[in-house]
Amino acid sequence: MSAEDSKAARLLGGDSFSVQDAIGGWRGFVESAAPGIVFVVAYLGWGGFRIPVIASVAVMAVLVAVRLIQRTPATQALSGAVGVAIGAVWAWRSGDASGYFVPGLWVNAAYLAGVLLSMAVGWPIVGVVMGLIRGEGTSWRERPAERRRYQLASGVVAGMFVLRLAVQVPLYLAGAVAALGTAKLAMGVPLFALTLWGVWLLARGAEGAPEPQDPPQTTR
């Protein structure tokens, strides 16, 4: 499970929703956004792909090093470092700055396919996760109202991935590197936090949702 997945699980199981926790705290938010911001700025300043890639990797390396030196949890920073490294390798091998964003597009497409598959087979991913968090296993599948809420919540998650792909893929195909980088930043942690809030609202309403009862039979 990734750092983002673990964070989502903790938030969905809480009695209240914290925006700060959803974005990983302000430090976590900066760590997530900084490499992408540096990449876009370097691209606008120098063009090409070498300097933007090197700059973003260097920033990510510094952020991880600071975490390790301070002996603070580095899970989120390390998770981000893996994504930055893969994007950097892809851009370097392709010789195109837009290649930096290709792995992220594939990851979003894979997550979208997984969520849609879980919904199609009647095991919405939000229900599976909430069943584990609440310790109720798969009993939620026996309650139609709760199952419908989890289907809807999973649809919200799928919508996030659809929106990302709908905006970012055309920008990638058009070679609009700066616009693509800006869109990726805006639709990264902020959109994830907004989506998580929507899922939390639906999942909270599903907990212990009463099933409609048949009206009592009257005798004559």
TrEMBL record:
Record keyword Endoplasmic reticulum present: no
What does the UniProt keyword field contain?
Membrane, Transmembrane, Transmembrane helix
InterPro entries associated with the record: UCP010219 (IPR016566)
Membrane-crossing segments per the record: 49-69, 76-93, 105-132, 152-173, 185-203
In this entry, which stretches build a coiled coil? Answer: none
Task: Report the protein name in the record.
Answer: DUF3159 domain-containing protein
Q: Organism, per UniProt?
A: Demequina sediminis
